[in-house]
Amino acid sequence: MKNVNREIGPRIIGLDPGAQSEIDNLMIEMDGTPNKARLGANATVGVSMAVARAAALTKGIPLYAYLGGAEATRLPVPMMNILNGGKHADNSVDFQEFMVIPIGAPSFAEALRYGAETFHALKAILKKKGYATGVGDEGGFAPNLKRNEEACEVIVEAIEKAGYIPGRDIAIALDPAASSFYENDTYELKKSGQGRLSNTQLTRLYNSWIEKFPIVSIEDGLAENDWAGFKEHTSVLGDKIQIVGDDIFVTNTEFIRRGISEKSANAVLIKLNQIGTVTETIEAVELCRKADWGFVISHRSGETEDPFIADFTVAMGGGQIKTGSVCRSERIAKYNRLLEIETELGNEAEFGNPLAQYQR
Ligand code: PGA
Ligand code: ZN
Predict the structure, then answer these.
(1) Whose CA is nearest to atom 9 of ligand 1?
(2) Is the shortest distance between the CB of 298 and ligand 1 below 6 Å?
(3) Which of 38, 114, 219, 229 is the most buried (most CB within 10 A)?
(4) Residues near 268 by beta carbon (within 8 Å), at least 6 away in sequence
């Protein structure tokens, strides 16, 4: 806040908010480090987003239309994190996020309903099995399951209990966040006691899960520095599912460029505060588009109620958002804003989600 109020503020007050890239570049210059280490990415991104909002208000148009133009009509399919493990929960599950994706839903509103019903069905199932139903950081349940696989098993059960067909109506996505259990060049599944695995063995484990469960997307299946592992991971799994890089790319165009040339993934998780300005975030998205890669606009585990990413997702038109489960108001704020946008767009709203290609 000090940096915003005392340093950035005095330099930008009076400037035209329509000059987004000039203002963002001014902040990059003022910061003077390669990673916003001095001013802080949360300070620069806050200002950058406020500038975009001010410009949209000045023009009298919604934020998604300001950032995306007249083509900004595509609503995203949500990746909903309904079961948490890893660093986000105190339980015996090593993998951080187990998400449902309503790939067969006909609209965003329906997709949200599919997800909400599955979330509540899961709660009932966990309760019946004697598991805790308190939620983790992103609003997913954090039961003390015995094995990592059990997470997929109870989710499939929940999808069915809610009246949907796993793989056709609702699929599963994982974010193991493998950097969090990578030690001494191996993957240590410590919380579950499933032992140490090499990158090749871990990829093989994912492959066996893809055969058993309707998994259509894996994010950070390997650790952020395991570039060689990611290349193999993508060559083995990349034709069957979406491979998303989060920690490996950190929304940085330099790393995304390397990933594209090495075929390290086929999609990128996009987080505005990871790179620190709206302009640089749009550059990251453009790189994905050019390479024909997918991209998912994402929240953070520590979030605010600001629904900026809802508008941003529609503006970028990639058709995917990751913003947590169907509880905790900082997650719901984004879903509510997307419902508003879908209603406002009316007949113009589109919902062609890129993961439908993996429907089974
Ligand atoms: P974060 O990551 O805890 O760094 O926000 C969440 C995620 O990987 O989606
Ligand atoms: Zn992640």
Answers:
(1) 300
(2) yes
(3) 219
(4) 244, 245, 246, 249, 251, 256, 259, 284, 288, 293, 294, 295, 296
